Amino acid sequence: MKKLLLLGGSAQQVVAIETAKRLGCYTVLCDYLPDNPGQYAADKFYLVSTTDKDAVLEVAKKENVDGVLAYASDPAAPTAAYVAEKLGLPGSPYRSVDILCNKDKFRAFLAENGFCTPKAKGYDDLAEAENDLNNGMFRFPVIVKPVDSSGSKGVGRIDDVSEINEKITYAMSFSRGHKIIVEEFVEKFGYQIAGDGLSIDGKLVFRCFANDHFDPKCENPFVPVSASFPYNMPDDVQTKIHNEIQRLLTLLDMGTTTYNFDMRIDKDYNVYLMEVAPRDGGNYIPDIIKYCTGVDLVECSVKAAMGMSLSDVKMQPYDTFYAYYAVHSYQSGVLKSIDIAEDAKKKIVEDHIIVKPGDKITTFTGANTTLGILLMKFDSLAEMLDMIDDSEKWISVKVD
């Protein structure tokens, strides 16, 4: 039986373990959390950090695995590529995956290769960052982020010099490698673009774009609260975005890999590749894409890691309207209730709320503070965008 090493066993990653087993793989799991749910789904479990490349490599050697997968995990993706490259397993080049997973390296690569990208600079010294911001190196507003975090954790916007110290210190607190990036803010036209895709031998054979939605009332307004499918721009705009992604994948010599996208266009339809992460999206985005197109990107990610054929995967048009919605709170405290209007309940196709009344919850600052995910189906694009953009009309989180 072929063996697959999976990196990460959170509740949203269990689906990859179950999919691998369905495809006939023996599953080995690494996770640094002793209470992760994935260990109960996997055939074998190692209490090993997914960011410790050499420790994971030793597990892979010991188990003589045939593939390694970091499903829906930015921090673990470089580890998976490192191990795969060391052992000659299927995957994309470690150097390329490392560029995609580190925001400062990614921005530099984009600039060097003529992509539209905001002026940016990485810092491991807060004093240097503060000095540059105070002395006019950047035009305000700017965005500051940890270079190596995911789920929008630690992201902040600085509009004037009075906010510099607080925001850069906050961002640095979320960086495992003690490094942040400062970049000038890109004004978007329409919705920010989300979605996932798949390349086979470096060719982007499948992608499914979505509208990213944010809640300005949140403490961290840069964390998406929803992605709604399909993206509401014409085909020629989507083709232009597709071609820019393909140019990036070609330059990086990417292999057979799944991706999660975050992108913007400006009023002149210039494409800004904000993030092209070499892994599946979180928040059940692959599930939504499967509802829309029938393409199972979880299965694709497992097959890619194992070197299995994906020759049957191709672009699939669709005329349905689906979205995920991240249930979130504006305040911390004890959850009293999550109230959903009856008409909205009829739109829910899957309920993945993970809290219950009486649980302690925190204000929404990143993907790790989501109270759960709702997968929803709508009758039209207009209905979907209206409900997602004005969710207070149909859902309320009450806290004591």
UniProtKB/TrEMBL annotation:
Keyword DNA repair in annotation: no
Signal sequence residues: none
Domain named ATP-grasp: residues: 107-306
Keyword Nucleotide-binding tagged: yes
Gene Ontology molecular function, alphabetical: ATP binding; D-alanine-D-alanine ligase activity; metal ion binding
Key words of the record: ATP-binding, Cell wall biogenesis/degradation, Ligase, Nucleotide-binding
Record's protein name: Biotin carboxylase
Organism taxonomic ancestry: Bacteria, Bacillati, Bacillota, Clostridia, Eubacteriales
